[in-house]
Amino acid sequence: MLNEAIEYLKSYDGPQINIMEVCGTHTHEIFRKGIRKILSPKIKLISGPGCPVCVTPVSFIDEARYLAEQGVTICTFGDLVRVPGSDGSLADSRAAGGKIKVCYSPMDAMEYAKEHTDEEVVFLSVGFETTTPSDVLSVKTAMDEGVSNFSLLTANKTMPNAYLVLKDSMDCYLYPGHVHAIIGTGICEELAANGVSGVVAGFTDKELVLAIAVAVKNAAKRKGYVDGVYSEDLAKENENKGFFVNCYPRVVKAEGSPKAVKLVDEFMEPSDEIWRGIGLLEKSGMKLKEKYKAYDARVKYNIPAFTAQGNKGCRCGDVLQGKILPSDCPLFGKACNPDHPVGACMVSDEGACSAFYMYN
Ligand code: SF4
């Protein structure tokens, strides 16, 4: 089956099919496993906005740097330390004496706060549906254990509205398996009913190749092609019909993880969020509810509003929307490289610019 799928993707000669891999881990794994190299020139993979670090706005880094300047200990995943804010990164804050601590989970940060009661500790809560439950769990545990010097600076994002905003950028989404393991596939079915196509993909070589083959086959059929033969009637019949296939059924179930969803819903509510390079998307994120404000760093420290945009030369926004390839950015590989990233997409391993630089 795998060999057949590889052969199909190599020799595909139907209409041009554009597939957006929404997830940063997919982008990275597709490059790392050399999958792009086996694809026919008529299949184009576009990297989407699913790298949490890449979509974290400049203003969020500015907020975190502000807290560091006030003497607050910032706990964060390592990738965020080098992401540029408007006037420097958290690495610069650290060089200036700020306490910036790299953690592997929000619970690590909460434990650190518990052991250092003389410090105020803030965890930078970024990520998608996959990681939000663990952010919430850290708050729940802090409450249960009476840890009051711990809070979250949230920039948690949710995918459904981003899917809607970017739906015209491609023929088919490669939906992130781990996100849909949490939220289920109801949203994918809904999108398909509204003409937006996609397949949920896993992360092994086999899962990715098979999912891409399923995506191409269905997307070609939607354009009226079956086995290379065009039918105008079929094209008309499928014109506004989306499709959805769950190619990761061993992990992704239709109902997702109701327990994780319930936990998040208990503590958080939808919020309008800024996505770096894309702008404000309504209800595209989650923030702590008013009753948990003691754990919301924005409220707790009365953080002023930061509104600065990123470096004007950086085209992360176009990259994240699939409008250009990273190599089309004039700064790519010159002023911007992994040692000196100008934009967030070059910082994280999951970022499209970083993946292009490493593997292309
Ligand atoms: Fe931004 Fe650098 Fe990517 Fe250009 S190459 S879009 S400057 S991150």
- The CATH class label of the largest domain is Alpha Beta
CATH superfamily of the largest domain: HypD, alpha/beta domain 2
CATH architectural name of the largest domain: 3-Layer(aba) Sandwich
Instruction: Quickly count the domains.
Output: 2
How does this model look, in words?
With 360 residues, this protein is of the alpha/beta class. The protein has two domains: 1-307, HypD, alpha/beta domain 2 (Rossmann fold, 3-Layer(aba) Sandwich), CATH 3.40.50; 316-359, no CATH class. Helices cover 39% and strands 20% of the residues. It has 17 helices and 13 strands. A six-stranded mixed beta sheet has the order 4-3-5-6-13-12, with helices on both faces. Helix 1 (2-11) crosses helix 12 and helix 8 packs across helix 14 (258-267). The chain is globular. The two termini are 28 Å apart. The relative contact order is 0.17. The model has no long low-confidence stretch (mean pLDDT 93). It binds iron/sulfur cluster. Iron/sulfur cluster binds next to helix 16. Iron/sulfur cluster (SF4) is lined by residues 314-316, 319, 326, 329, 331-332, 336, 342-343, 345-346, 353. It comes from Eubacterium uniforme. This is Hydrogenase expression/formation protein HypD. InterPro entries: Hyd_form_HypD, HypD_1, HypD_2_sf. Belongs to the HypD family. One of its GO terms (molecular function) is carbon monoxide binding.
